[in-house]
Amino acid sequence: MDESDHCTLCADGALEFAVKKNFPVEFVEGRDIPLDGLNAGLNNSPGDTVTAIAMDCKGNLACAASSGGIPGKSKGRVGDVPLVGCGGYANEYGAAAACGHGESIIRMTVAKEVVYNMQKLNQSAQKPNLTILHQILYISALF
């Protein structure tokens, strides 16, 4: 976002920015179909987020994530995947990627917290994951 003071734009604001900056804009057929039929199985349907962590031959770590979103979400909702430290995070000490309830992941910046625990507390990947899991369960209960 070199041409904006904002870190993230979504929904109509993102569209207006794209048009102003002459980005090509394409509309996908069928994106505005009613979701009534999809909402029925919401609680039983598995998520479709995919994550990956990779290490190159020099030991550099990277992470990636992709999500198709969730049915029935509010217009303009931004999930955890595009937010740094939430759906994924990597540095020279470790890498983590998360999937699950996006709002809880965002509130905790889960991936960053896991790597932070590995870095600052010198913990293995297993232990910070359990620590963060307990914190997520607590945060989820509050909301």
UniProtKB/TrEMBL annotation:
Listed GO biological process terms: L-asparagine catabolic process via L-aspartate
Family: Belongs to the Ntn-hydrolase family.
GO MF term list: hydrolase activity
Domain of life: Eukaryota
Entry's Gene Ontology cellular component terms: cytoplasm
Organism per entry: Paramuricea clavata (Red gorgonian)
Name the record gives this protein: Isoaspartyl peptidase L-asparaginase-like
